[in-house]
Amino acid sequence: MGLMQRSLYGGILILVILMARALLRNKLPRRTFPILWGIAMVRLLLPFSFSSIFSVYSFLQKETGTFIAGNAVQGMPGGAAPAGELPAWDGIQNFVSGEGMAAMPDEKGIPVFFIVWCIGVLLCVLFFATAYIRCMRKFRRAVLVESAWVCQWLSSRRRGRFISVRRARGIVAPLTYGIIRPVILLPERIVWEERRELEYVLQHEYVHICHYDAVMKLMMLVVLCMHWFNPLVWLMAALLNRDIELACDAGVLRRFGEQARAGYAMTLIGMEEKKSVLMPLYNGFSKNAIEERIKSIMKYKKVTYAAVSAAALLVVFIVLVFATSAQNAEAAEGGMNPTESGMGNQEDVLMDPPKEGGENESQTSVKPEETEEPDTAGIPGENTDNQMENDTNTGNGEYVLSYTAEGMEVEEPANLYTGDGYCLLIPVEGWRGYAPDAWMLEANEMVQFWINDYSGSTWEQVEKQLQENGYTRTDVDGIMRKEDTDRIYHVNIRRSGEQVMCFNYTYPADPEYIEGFELFLSVVAANFAILPKENGGTQSEDGKLAEQAAFAFWEAYLAGDSDTLKQYLTADYTGELEVFPDGQDGHSAQEAEVLAVKGTDIGEQAVGNKIDVWVEFRPSATADTLEYLWISMVKEAEGWKAESYGLEM
């Protein structure tokens, strides 16, 4: 989640707390509002958020008709719309990187907002650091109070941390500093004979220590430095300090009883009269703040169980409704009943993405195809057969992936890609193909999605194999998930007639990537659809011959038979004869199994005189990843021959 987005939703949460404070501040325990301000600060600081079905943003998404997590893609019939000019992918990148969404680049390509933000952060850090250093110089000159009465008071109130009481010149009002070894600092001219007044002062500062208010204020400084441009954050800082003091006042009266209200109020007035303009940032609030504290003290009543219960309910309500994000539910697929679609013997399911590598890596690039007749592969709608609806208004094959993230609509330009028996929308920017039917994010190769065809296996067979490999079912039928130490995997099982395919995607198990890509990739998955057999999957005679030649080449390659391998090479082949690396890097010739031959034609059109073919195989029975034998084939008089080949791992 980007900085601007955090500031926006944190600001909404601050407004909600302000409303609750205005209506309920005299009816709930005073400690309620520092807790709520703490929740708002956490929301502003964390680069990710927790989702909830109770979130107000989930309700807003339902009201606007935009389903999250790829349930539907709004736009033209079938879920697609012509691509606009909105660079939505930049928004996704900003969510992940934490950069401002509204930043405009300067001449050197650096966002102007980022430069301004950094300057503001630096100025805030310098201001607060200077104030801290100045105060600490003064505090170091403080001397330890050795009064017997103060020592006795301290001995009765130690709670794990060592607390000391000191006095210093130049301090006109009591204060507390320090977290691990807190110090109560008293003015040098305090009247030591007024034991009751002194006890009020010490108890007030002790309540600060017990509730770790120094940690709360330190967190507030970090929030101010990060969100210095948000006026609501500065207002929260002022009210947080005020609410902390009100909560400590209530803590003092809770110990001494309601009969101490007048005496404690007079002590507070006396201390405030001695204060100088020590903190200019909050000077404008000082008069109103002391008046509010006095009124609160005089109206103090013992906290009831009903008030505590109401405060707990309020905190839970605000957290669930306003501090959480919209629930990233998995995409609900139409027509996904797990009924058998035909029996077969293929039980292997790809558990992890294909690996990229090998010196022939450039040969594996898969680019979106632009067709002049896209009506044979429309954008997936919500029909129960998961088939493609015809769409004659596809233009140049540009569409829009639109979805809602944190209550904000995002649009991502995409191209229609038609593969072997399927089609899907691929984002225009930021992605590249690295293997047949597989794509990765250019900025991070751990973010990937890929397609597997398991036609011939039943839905149950595929699901069972996934479960054996660590995947678990989700609330949505046909969608499974697996988590490793560093990656998260998703599989969407699709069926159309006897065809069974899987859309797989993965991303790092890092909160920033989960926030940015779990939703986005589920939207891409929602726009994957199986092509009906009459529109795809028919192979030409040239394609069949090329596939047979590739299988024969694979058999010789697997057996390590160099003489047979030469028969399938062109006469001018000059490269080294490479064979299957049996026994190396987890490869086993006995266990290796071919899953598919990819790269031959779709439809009755001729293949041409030269094609690139990939033999997809599992290198061993225990391998979690697939590999590819890439073969560049040319058509000669005696049939298809390989002019070059290589193993891609």
UniProtKB/TrEMBL annotation:
Residues 3-297 form the Peptidase M56 domain. Residues 383-396 have a biased composition (Polar residues). It comes from the Bacteria. It holds the Pfam family Peptidase_M56. The keyword Lipid biosynthesis does not apply. The keyword Transmembrane applies. InterPro entries: Beta-lactam_resp_regulator, Peptidase_M56. Keywords: Membrane, Transmembrane, Transmembrane helix. The chain crosses the membrane at residues 6-24, 36-60, 110-133, 168-186, 218-240, 303-323. Residues 332-398 are annotated as: Disordered. This is Regulatory protein BlaR1.
